[in-house]
Write a structure and sequence with these properties.
Layout: H1 6-23, H2 38-42, E1 50-52, H3 54-59, E2 67-74, E3 84-85, E4 87-92, E5 107-108, H4 115-128, E6 136-137, H5 143-151, E7 157-161, H6 162-171, E8 179-184, E9 188-189, E10 192-195, H7 201-212, H8 218-224, E11 229-233, H9 237-241, H10 243-254
Parallel strand pairs: 5-6, 5-7
Antiparallel strand pairs: 1-10, 2-10, 2-11, 3-9, 4-7, 4-8
Length: 258
């Protein structure tokens, strides 16, 4: 989910190697690039650890859900030292678009079960422009798809996961050099790190405790820093459970789906 550039993938590989050593759990690091279906990944019985967006977790039947381990806390100001994220609404830097004119823009969107790329921008629009009927371009699957659609003029604006944007600012600023942030959406629970429910509970607990204590050792801090993370926290599952209601309110205000 957050392998947004080769440099960032290398940092995640470093982190998961540290985690395997710290937890005493053998982890095989595998590539799973978009557009490979995330639902298939989340359903794997041998899933040791991966990210899962909170919205699909919330709407998934309880018996099918993986086990939540921890949620990241970003060093960025929008996180406010909490396990939350948001979406950056971005446009071409030379477009002159401002937040006040976003109801007349063409919006790129990722997939309908995405919080950051679909629900968050719709909630943003519903709060500021109730009943807005905007032109759209999608699905574009991923934050990279949104960036490309806006960069090439297929869309005027789009919502990019704020943490993905942070990682690009840190490690691949050239990928977003032509774009600028117009606005930021309301916070939502950060995508969680999860494991398969089929794993031995002892393995799951060792992974959880290693994540939650990562900021308490020099090696853990060194693994977190290149990822723009300060620590991991216990996921706010009550906030996660509230995401479908937030999406439904946006749907009601806008009157139609994209």
């Amino acid at each position: 989910m957050y392998n947004v550039s080769p440099a960032v993938k290398a940092r995640w590989d470093d982190f998961f190697r540290w985690l395997a050593d710290e937890a005493g759990v053998a982890l095989d690091i595998i590539a799973y690039p978009a557009p490979a279906p995330l639902a298939d990944l989340w359903a794997r019985a041998d899933l040791g650890i991966t990210f899962m967006c909170s919205f699909p977790y919330a709407v998934m039947p309880e018996e099918d859900r993986p086990v939540p381990l921890a949620a990241p806390v970003s060093t960025a100001s929008w996180a406010d030292d909490k396990p939350v994220y948001a979406s950056r609404i971005v446009a071409r830097a030379d477009s002159g678009l401002a937040a006040a004119s976003l109801a007349s823009a063409r919006w790129a969107w990722t997939v309908r079960d995405s919080q950051s790329g679909y629900n968050a921008p719709r909630e943003f629009l519903a709060a500021r422009f109730p009943g807005a009927r905007v032109a759209t371009f999608g699905p574009v699957i991923s934050p990279a798809g949104v960036i490309e659609a806006v960069r090439t003029g297929k869309a005027d604006v789009g919502a990019v996961d704020a943490y993905a944007w942070q990682l690009l600012e840190m490690h691949a600023p050239e990928a977003i050099a032509e774009l600028s942030v117009v606005a930021t959406t309301e916070p939502a629970p950060f995508p969680m790190l999860v494991s398969s429910a089929a794993l031995d509970p002892g393995v799951t607990e060792r992974l959880r405790q290693a994540l939650l204590s990562a900021d308490r050792s020099p090696d853990g801090i060194s693994a977190l820093a290149p990822l723009g993370l300060s620590r991991f926290a216990i996921p706010d599952l009550a906030a996660v459970a509230g995401l479908p209601a937030r999406a439904a309110q946006a749907d009601a205000a806008l009157g139609e789906r994209w």
